[in-house]
Amino acid sequence: MKVVLQRVSKASVSVGGKIISQIDQGLLILLGITPDDTHDDISWLCHKIAHLRIFNDDNQIMNKSLIDVQGNAIVVSQFTLMASTKKGHRPSYIQAAKPDLAIPLYQAFIQTFEEKINTKVGTGEFGADMKVELINDGPVTILIDSKRKE
Fold first, then answer.
1. Contact indicator for 124, 20 with CB cutoff of 8 Å
2. Residue 80 a catalytic site member
3. Which of 17, 29, 93, 135 is the most exposed place for a label (fewest CB within 10 A)?
4. pLDDT tens digit sequence for 31-68
5. Catalytic choice (38, 80, 119, 123)
6. Which CATH number fits domain 2-145: 3.30.980.10, 2.40.50.100, 3.50.80.10, 3.30.465.10?
7. Is the pTM for the entire model greater than 0.85?
8. Nearest CA among 56, 42, 51, 39 for reference residue 3
């Protein structure tokens, strides 16, 4: 699994012109899933993200986690994170998991993350044409790959 974390002061996801998720301070999590991903990847990533100290303390130093600041999150499935641009000019998405595997892993990620941060998270709509709006706070954007453990 790969994630792009964006620390946000606001974020929302719309489908068909209707907002389906909206948060203030927290994280927008873009999640890419491969056919090789397992519940071990989910557990490792959810723990890492929930405890990652990327929010400012009183001295404006990134020293607090999402849990510490009681922030919110939106998780959006993003198969394009698995794009390979090695050949030509059209990205290949062959490394992205197909929906029959990706949907249950996406749902398991959401459930596990909710348990880690002890609050409900917003979501996108798997496979939909989504419009994601955000105000990246900092800006702070971090990439994490569960296979490389970084």
1. yes
2. yes
3. 17
4. 999 999 999 999 999 999 999 999 999 999 999 999 99
5. 80
6. 3.50.80.10
7. yes
8. 42
